[in-house]
Each structure stands twice: as C-alpha cells, then as structure tokens.
C-alpha cells in the first residue's frame, strides 16, 4: 500500500504546533484548578542510560537512575493517556536497546497516543521495523556526517556509519510501502563542524544536504551545541552568513523544521536573556520522566537538575511541587540560564503573548511580583 507522504509530514511537529500554544495558555489561566500531575500534552520517557555509542556531546549516558520497572512504565503510559496526553517521546541513552520498548509503544498506541523516538539509528534494522509496526509514528535519527572517520570520532564507535545510513533508507522504504511514519534527521553543529562543512567550496555541506534531500526523509535540522564554558556557538559572522545562505540555496522551503531551526541559528544562543520570559510553562504541557520521577524538561534531566517530584509521592504532593516550580523565576536557575534553547524559549514567549497581562503566575517564591521579574 502506498502512503501519501504529505499526510505524514504536513505539520512541522508537536513542538511548534499553534494549537499546543493556545491550549497551554488556557491551562495557565486555569493554573489553580488542575488536579492531576499527568495532565500534560506530551510525556518524554527517558527509558535507559545505556547506549551503543559514546557521542562526545552527550550527557545522557551519565544520567544516574536505577532501571525502570516495567510495571511502572505501563502504569505511567496509562496515567498519561487517562489524563489526555497525546504524545509520548522515547529517549535515552539509546531507547531502542530496551527489549520491552515495542510493547510499551503498542500499549501507548492502543490508548490513542502518538509515539516518537530519538535514536542514533545504529540498532538492527528489524528493531526499527518492529517499532514502526508497534505504532511508532516519528523517528528522529542522528546523522552528523557522511565521513566514516569523522563519524567514528564524534560517536566514539567504529564502523557504524553505513549501518545508520542503511537503516534510515530502510525506514524510508518501509514507510512508503507499509506505514505512515515521519522521519527526521538530526545534525549536530558547533563552530568546528560549521567551518569543516564550508571548506573546499562547501563540499561537505553540499554532500550532506544533498543526501538528506535524495534520501526521502521528511525533514532534517541542525542542532547547535553549547561549546565549553560559553553559552554560544563561537562562530565567525562571515562564515555563519555564508553557511546560512548556502543552506537556504540548497534546501526547498517545504522542509519546514530545517528552515525554522536555520532562522534561530544565527544567534547561536543558549540560555535566557533579559528579553525572554522568566516563567517556564513547559512542565505544565511537556514533562520528562525517568525511573525515579519527573523533571521539568529534558535539559534539567540531561544537565543534572533537580526532579520536580518522585513517582512514589502522593499525587497531592506532586501537584504541590509542580505548582511551586511553575511560580519560580527561571532566571534564578543556573541550568535554565545557561542551557535553555530556541524551541523552549519560543513556546514560552508565544504563550506569554497569548496571556498578555492575564498570567496568574507570580514570583512569590522570590519575593517579587511579575512586573519586577528581571
């Protein structure tokens, strides 16, 4: 059966969805009324710290947590679905290594939720086919370079690049023939890689983007990396301008996520600035769970932040902890200040625009009202 590709890629994705912003703003207006810690639109489940690669930029393999109890995962899936969640994102480590993941996805899918996975693409191809059959709707697959030696350096692996490429192409073929799934390629980027991509008349950039276009994937995007002790990509302005112009020339506008991330790339910025909202509404809509409890966002988990609450706490305590987090000034949080990134900031600012002066959150925890937050 042939699947209309437009059906699987007509939206940029959940993180940029306008309806999400409207619903989140309404949830904030009803801030004092929510009665369940599972009343979110998307749950991100950090399934394992195990990984079959050791990418130099990844902190996830160092995240301390005991293994999940399978019963806890199924319970969390049921709680999320019962409270109206629409999406589950599976991540790690390398989530595809978990032997029960297809069962989790099948259960989530049967309860009406979409499923997506962030993966390095290096597991056996049948693993990904099984996940697609179980109901995995979206695959976000890392592919930072087409050079075998550079791939080995970046991922701490040996000879895995061609496996990843074959798996991406196999999923594209399987999607066209059998399943309605969306495939996005993630490409990490720092100042070194940008310079390398632009060398020799941008030969490597041309090859990488041409491969993405010809592969049949639905979208692709650059993911800027925070560098060293800086909260910016330390780019040369001229190189950055040339890089962006080359990308715009090479890539059609229908690749919406690619173009969105390209627009935000030039600032090269991580963290919160004075112009950005001091509130974070993310955790009332899109929360991250490990085997112990819940984090406000994936940044808090990956960078060693504090959990908002633990799974074994009573629901009233979970709600209390969540409310305490929501009224806090995020500019007082060192991790938010350093690592918050464009998608999270963009969502918060769009929600703030809809709220105007109607936001019921304040800064009681910091002894300030919302007008004096910065």
How would you describe this protein?
With 374 residues, the protein is of the alpha/beta class. It has a single domain (1-374), classed as Aldolase class I (TIM Barrel, Alpha-Beta Barrel), CATH 3.20.20. Helix content is 43%, strand content 13%. The longest helix has 25 residues, at 191-215. The chain starts with a helix and ends in a 19-residue tail after the last helix.
Q: Summary?
A:
By secondary structure, the protein is α/β, with parallel strands linked by helices. Helix content is 43%, strand content 13%.
- How much helix is in the residues? 40-55%
Strand content: 5-15%
Q: Strand order of the main beta sheet, please? A: 6-5-4-3-2-1-7-8-9
Mean pLDDT: 85
Structural class by sheet pairing and helices: alpha/beta
Main sheet characteristics: 9 strands, mixed
Question: Considering the protein shown, what is the CATH homologous superfamily?
Answer: Aldolase class I
What CATH architecture would you give?
Alpha-Beta Barrel
CATH names the topology as TIM Barrel
Summed up, the helix count is 14
Instruction: Calculate Rg over CA atoms.
Output: 20 Å
For the record, the count of structural domains works out to: 1
Query: What is the string of helix and strand elements?
Result: HHEHEHEHEHHEHEHHEEHEHHH
